[in-house]
Amino acid sequence: MSFETLKVFKFSSIFVLSIVVLGCLPWGQCQDNQANNSSHTQLFYSIVLNHTSHLSQEITNRSSFCIKDPSDDWNRAFNFSSDVAFLSACINKHGSAEDFTGRICTMAELKFYFNYLFEAPLSSNYLKPNRNCNLTTWNPGCEPGWACSVGTQQVDLSRADMPERTGNCSTCCEGFFCPYGLACMIPCPLGSYCPLATLNATNGICEPYTYQLPPGQPNHTCGGANMWADVARSKEMFCSAGSHCPSTIKKETCGSGSYCRMGSTIPKPCYKLVSCDANSSSQNIKTYGILLIVALTTMLFIIYNCYDQFISIRARRLAKSREAAARSARETARARQRWKAAKDAAKRRALELSGTFSRRRNPADSEQLNMLNEESQSVNGSSLSPIHESGSLPQGLSSEKKKKKKQPATKGMHTQTQIFNYAYAQLEKEKERALENDDSNVTFSGVISMATNPEIKKRPLMEVSFMDLTLTLKGKNKHLLRCVTGTLKPGRITAVMGPSGAGKTSFLSALAGKAVGCSTTGLILINGKKESIHSYKKIVGFVPQDDIVHGNLTVEENLWFSAKCRLAASMPKAEKVVVVERVIESLGLRSVRDSLVGTVEKRGISGGQRKRVNVGLEMVMEPSLLILDEPTSGLDSASSLQLMKALRHESLEGVNISMVVHQPSYTLFQMFNDLILLAKGGFIVYHGPVKKVEEYFSGLGINVPERVNPPDHFIDILEGIVIPNTSTGITPKELPIRWMMYNGYPVPPDMREAAGAMLSNGRVDVAVGINSINIGTTEQSFAGELWQDMRNNVERHRDKLRLNLLKSKDLASRRTPGVFVQYKYFLGRIGKQRLRDAKVQSVDFLILLLAGACLGTLSKASDESFGAAGYTYTIIAVSLLCKIAALRSFSLDKLQHWRESASGMSTLAYFLAKDTIDHFNTAIKPVVYLSMFYFFTSPRSSFLENYIVLLCLVYCVTGIGYSLAIFFEAGAAQLWSVLLPVIMTLVATRRNTGIMKIISDLCYPKWALEAFVIANAKEYDGVWLITRCGALLKSGYDIRNFDTCIVVLIFTGVMGRMLAYFGMLIYQKK
């Protein structure tokens, strides 16, 4: 690293660091008293002992950004207690301790040296003029590697001014360095090698250093070391790689089985399974990376494969148990039918015999008939097998039986076999009741008896009334619905039909409270009360036009999850199984119940089956109001008929069903109870029973031709394809007015003229709608239109926020599972989905593995910058790859979440479950990347420290990826995921000031890179101290901020998740 950029730093603190060279010598003496040292050495220790405490405090105050523990760092750099031979040799060389002490630099000289060292340009290799070395006075001691004594002056190492050094100049001692232009000695730190230089006659350089002999002085010789600075300027002073220097005057080659990095004092043994040759500067630990990858791959393979096997075995066992229960229930039902047939035959035979022999009833035959009736009742009341009862029970047993009947039938059921037996027994009983009440033999009284049958479970009734309902699109002043009045009654199926653009879907959206971006006038009443439909969302089912289901779940898993989250929490599991099995049976999904639904990329069930699953998601929650948007589109006639039969069964339980249909067959059309026929413009043309629609239009002179489907004929007329052949001359535009006048509804003012023209006899008052809006057609200016559009956009966003954030009171008599229980359900579902997407996960891991290998090969750990370049590439690569992967967590099933949250499922439970499952990848991905990058670059920081930083980085960028996935569409989110890491890293790696400094602090790469560099820089000590301080100063890092960096990364990840969750609450489907 070059110190050219560090001129602004007045390195008086480095002076303090270096003067500890003297201050730490007595520390070594205290730690290990060298009994063999000479008296002169002990005298030197006593001279500098008084300066130690003062210098240590000054180091702490001025250099804390690069020295975390001064005592430990300086002890590693200047504790010569293990070998002070160089000191004794230097004293002996100069003959006396006084002369040796007089050659040591004072505090003033050290300050002068280090201040100018960091202010001088890179090309400068000498100090500026001073008292001893200037234009008029330049003695041999001013040359590099030489020093002079102070002579007879009193030596005070803490003096503030430079002493005069003019005499007795000689070469610098081994283990010391003498700067060019200073004429005094400074001890070399541990990890350096400071021998006397030898002259290379070829180039005139004093090796191993880079200075030359002064010209014109033939008697001058090479001295000792001349500079201690950063590794870029004084690399020759550092103990070379592949060797270790136990002292500053000894250099030994690393032996086999160990390695020595640059600046090492002792050799480090190589790990097991790693072979290190002699003179090795690093150990090849790629083998450990390969072993780690093998272990990780084996673990992931076991997890994915074993869990898949576990799921498969569990599914097979459940299928066997379910098939056995269904078979047992069918056999029981057949036995019950055979017993009933035999009983009926015996009863008929007895009646025939009694009629043949006598008109008077035989008492024996009468008693036999009574017994048969009692047995019949006992058979019909049994759920599993016929039970023969004879005689009366004792009073005690009778009361006990009554008590038992009060208990729920599902109490005590714990095993899957018991639950399936109960569920299929209930289903067989329902089938028997359906056969007894076959539509072909059902009269009006039969329907009433079915509806009032106590054995058929009833649901809370919901009647939806709408009066003068008008829906206007904001900004365009376009009516989607106008003056719609009517009632949707419970227990009936209402078909909403009309030509394209008639507002059928808008009508259902308005009823379901999903009409955002529109102004609504009129009234919508729930059971005669003005309540919000959102207050009943737990018992309202809405089937969207698109088949929004989870493609990587099976049919049964989709239905079962919806049932668990939306049915009452108090409902026993056996009853929930009954509900799910009933829906599967009624929708004809039994053959594909264990098949994946499939996606666009991966083929699954057929389109018609997928449509039925879409409907089944709402049927399993047992709604009181069921709204369906084109459920029969894409279905063949048989599938549509089967779906309608299932819906008719729902209507018998009191469900209010309304659905949009297109071109139903005549058979399907006759299965509806009511019809709402809409014309273009959102007007009602007819609303009433299906059986009376032809009668109504016949009254208008519109008759359905033979062999023509009535709904198709009416829609063709409203579309203008067929012109009605009537004597009244009625047109399609007049049909809405005819309906209003027929029912006495108020007519909008802009239609009164047409209504009056249709009155042929006399003057008839036409009621005016009080809530009708007469939209003008006055043209606005460009500025007015622009202002109006802005207002409409603000109002639309306000409506969305109000719809998504404001919670309405819960009026539904159903308590669904809480957040914690739903979190458990979501956790199981998402975990299952991730395991089925194991190939996608493996691709992510493979890409990270290749990125780690490539970057680890291309970017070697640099001792000058502590590997900052490689870590910068790591931050960009990991951020990009992990953000792209995080986008899939919420982008792929965004539509499914919107549907689930609109139905009342917990968004918090869904988000926490997603994040919890992603923690597995968060923990694994750093290991995958570091298994290549760390073992290729082999930095000095530990694997654990690198893993902790990378773990926090992945957690941080995953939270940011969540936010991008929520707030942006898929394409824009991917673009931002690529740009953000690059831009933020470029900003963070610059030395910024002012506003850019604040922006840099807001960029997460700045904190991640600082944590990486600090973790690596802490391992550089001894001769590396100046290099460490210079590198940290240049980057603006503080060695004490490692924990702060970790906290900032975690905090950024948490904030990203909070922002994403907030976005999930406010950004819903328009």
UniProtKB/TrEMBL annotation:
Keywords: ATP-binding, Membrane, Nucleotide-binding, Signal, Transmembrane, Transmembrane helix, Transport
UniProt-listed InterPro entries: AAA+_ATPase, ABC_transporter-like_ATP-bd, ABC_transporter-like_CS, ABCG_dom, ABCG_transporters, P-loop_NTPase
Superkingdom assignment: Eukaryota
Signal peptide: 1-30
Transmembrane segments: 288-307, 842-859, 871-890, 947-967, 973-989, 1044-1067
Organism from which the protein derives: Trapa incisa
Stored PROSITE patterns: ABC_TRANSPORTER_1, ABC_TRANSPORTER_2, PROKAR_LIPOPROTEIN
UniProt GO molecular function: ABC-type transporter activity; ATP binding; ATP hydrolysis activity
Biased segments, Polar residues type: 365-385
UniProt similarity note: Belongs to the ABC transporter superfamily. ABCG family. Eye pigment precursor importer (TC 3.A.1.204) subfamily.
Protein name stated in the entry: ABC transporter domain-containing protein
Pfam families, alphabetized: ABC2_membrane_7, ABC_tran
Segments forming domain ABC transporter: 464-706
Predominant cellular place of this UniProt entry's protein: membrane
Region: Disordered, residue numbers: 352-415
A GO CC annotation given for this chain: membrane
Coiled-coil spans in chain: none
Membrane topology term: Multi-pass membrane protein
Subcellular location: Membrane
